Request: fold
Amino acid sequence: MSIIDQALEGKVALVTGGSRGNGRAIAIALGRRGAKVVINFASNEAAAKETATAVEAVGGTAVLSGFDVANSAAVTEAIKAIGKDHGSLEILVNNAGVAINGLLMRFSDDQWDRTMKTNLGGAFHCVRAAASMLLRAKEHGRIINITSVVGEQGNGGQAAYSASKAGLIGFTMSTARELASRGVTCNAVAPGFIETDMTAKELPEAARAKLLEQIPLSRIGRPDDVADTVAFLAGPEAAYITGQVLRVNGGLLM
Reply:
């Protein structure tokens, strides 16, 4: 990690889906910058505790908050509790998501609904529930939505995932326009192919080699690449950036 300052000291940040992968790296990066990080998880509390330990290891503060972002009532209750327990919420990172792959003609209604309710509905639920606290934070308020390169270019076998991530981009821009008058920014980060436990297991070597041929920087991305971008957008350096999609993909999509 390159982020070592304390620019987020005194700020409270909620990272959804913070128990592993990109979410864990984001939580660590925000904690390193001084934020108190609320780590959301849906079911894997043990992994969330590991993330909290990692945040504390770099000098940050971390607490856990278990709820399903697809459940509107649960989100509202959890974010209300965050405000009560910690006094504020300045940074919201909508990272929680699911990727259910399959050909469109064989995709079930349940698979489509779960993808949309989690990836797009989850961000909506969290922003709506947190909006009043973010507006009170004024120019310190930050919303960062984690979308994907496939939300811009599509991908075979990922119609639902691509559609949900494309929708998240539109949601980001509309939210940015609604909240800008109070100084709150809303941006999206669009990772390309990032090396996580899940992708390492699912990508065969032949497919990895073919993918690398398409990436000008000739390497798979790391969670830290995404996390450092999020930490930048959460900080004072990004106060005049809103409604943007920052691509973290090694040049896969330009």
